[in-house]
């Protein structure tokens, strides 16, 4: 299983939010490029970026950092947050990102996701952020009535590379992943699932291994890495076990 360090960008800084609350911000670094390089040097095989400004407002304000990170790193970098048009997705891919993550638009304009997946094989990921099993959008500010698993099934044959399943209730809490929700998502999805939310220690990561045969191929880790509760090198040894190949690489090779 792949461990994917997260860098959340807000006003050009590396931050973490508590359960997606923009009023509860912890700032970790004002140098995103240095932080990205650090994760790569520690063995990360992929990096996860979130444009929090873009997620909230739909406006791109962290592009300079995104460009600098992709230019500095040799590993794949994926980004989500405010990607709501074909033009924006293509712009980001042109920066050198390996893939872009579509969240709000996946619910509101699923046909746009399908178009991008067809035009950019292996480079389109759907982000499904759920609160009590229901999809939340626009930086988690708006709550829908759509089941997360229902949305996952909508893209079963679309050609997307993966689904990032985020449980809002556990995100940033360090209390452990929502294994039940992840299991339901993996069973509903025909594409790889990447877990996100709640990782607070090595035991939490190990608990995900039971879901790997169902299709949970990766996990995004944020606050626990920054707090030192999880050591990336130790975690890679514990759950990587020589299986650090990129779960998206077969599709990326089609691009």
Question: Which structural class matches the secondary elements?
Answer: alpha/beta
Q: From the alpha-carbon coordinates, what is the Rg to the nearest angstrom?
A: 16 Å
From the structure provided, what is the oligomeric state, counting identical versus distinct chains? single chain
Number of helices: 12
| Beta-strand proportion | 25-35%
- Fraction of residues in helix: 25-40%
The residue-averaged pLDDT reads 88
What is the CATH C-level name?
Answer: Alpha Beta
What kind of sheet is the major sheet? 8 strands, parallel, barrel
Give me the strand/helix succession: EEEHEHHEHEHHEEEHEHEHEHHH
Index terms:
single chain, 255 residues, alpha/beta, TIM Barrel, globular, disordered C terminus
Secondary structure layout:
Blueprint: E1 2-10, E2 13-18, E3 21-29, H1 32-41, E4 47-51, H2 52-57, H3 63-72, E5 77-80, H4 86-94, E6 99-102, H5 104-108, H6 110-119, E7 124-131, E8 134-137, E9 142-147, H7 148-154, E10 162-167, H8 179-188, E11 193-196, H9 202-207, E12 216-221, H10 223-227, H11 232-240, H12 249-252
Parallel strand pairs: 1-4, 1-12, 4-5, 5-6, 6-7, 7-10, 10-11, 11-12
Antiparallel strand pairs: 1-2, 2-3, 7-8, 8-9
Q: Explain this structure to me?
A:
- The chain is an alpha/beta fold and 255 residues long.
- It has a single domain (2-252), classed as TIM Barrel (Alpha-Beta Barrel), CATH 3.20.20.
- Helices cover 36% and strands 28% of the residues.
- It contains twelve helices and twelve strands.
- The protein has an eight-stranded parallel β-barrel with strand order 1-4-5-6-7-10-11-12, surrounded by seven helices.
- Strand 10, helix 8 (179-188) and strand 11 form a beta-alpha-beta unit.
- Helix 1 runs parallel beside helix 3.
- Mean pLDDT is 88; it is low at 241-245 and 249-255.
